[in-house]
Amino acid sequence: MAALVRYAADQANAELAVVTCSAARGPMLQRVASNTGIAVLKIDEPLAREAVAHGSRVGVLVTFASSREAAESLLRDAAIESGATVELDTLVIPEAYTALLSGDVQRHDELVIEAGVALSARNRCVVLSQISMARVAAKIASQSHVPVLDALNSSLTEVRSRFVRQ
């Protein structure tokens, strides 16, 4: 990863690398940043910080079952880092992921919207833990009373804020 980030810095004058791999963790990313001289942002870290700031009960929507542990770990780490206490209410809907893989995007989105609205009824915010769900965040939010967060929008907000400060 460091070689790729270094290449981006050298060849494209990159000032920031956004890492989308959920397996990449803080210490590794810190080493990459210090070895390359450019900032490194894990795409879902702003989402996690934002989620735990919304309150003690966070709904987490997961479609790819294997990513549940990583999503929950990221949120717990963000809570510890901020000194917050959070209870995670995780809902895994693998049938949505199956629909997406089979090309049935409409069915995927319907399942995600239904589950997201259900989570919003019992939590302070809802986290859509995969980028594939970002496109329906606004639809869920329009049917709920709590913030609906996704890594795509949270990370873009973070990237914009870093460049505005410069």
Largest sheet: 4 strands, parallel
Rg? 17 Å
Number of helices: 8
The outline comes out as globular
Structural class call reads alpha/beta
Tell me the layout of helices and strands.
Layout: H1 2-12, E1 16-19, H2 26-36, E2 39-42, H3 45-53, E3 57-62, H4 68-82, E4 87-92, H5 94-101, H6 105-120, E5 125-128, H7 137-142, E6 148-150, H8 151-165
Parallel strand pairs: 1-2, 3-4, 3-5, 5-6
Helix pairs in contact: 1-2, 3-4, 3-8, 5-6
Structural overview:
By secondary structure, the chain is of the alpha/beta class. The strands form 2 sheets. Strands 4-3-5-6 form a 4-stranded parallel β-sheet, sandwiched between helices. It has helices at residues 2-12, 26-36, 45-53, 68-82, 94-101, 105-120, 137-142, 151-165, and strands at residues 16-19, 39-42, 57-62, 87-92, 125-128, 148-150.
Short account of what is shown:
With 166 residues, the chain is an alpha/beta fold. Helix content is 55%, strand content 16%.
Keywords:
two-stranded parallel sheet; 166 residues; 16% strand; 55% helix; alpha/beta
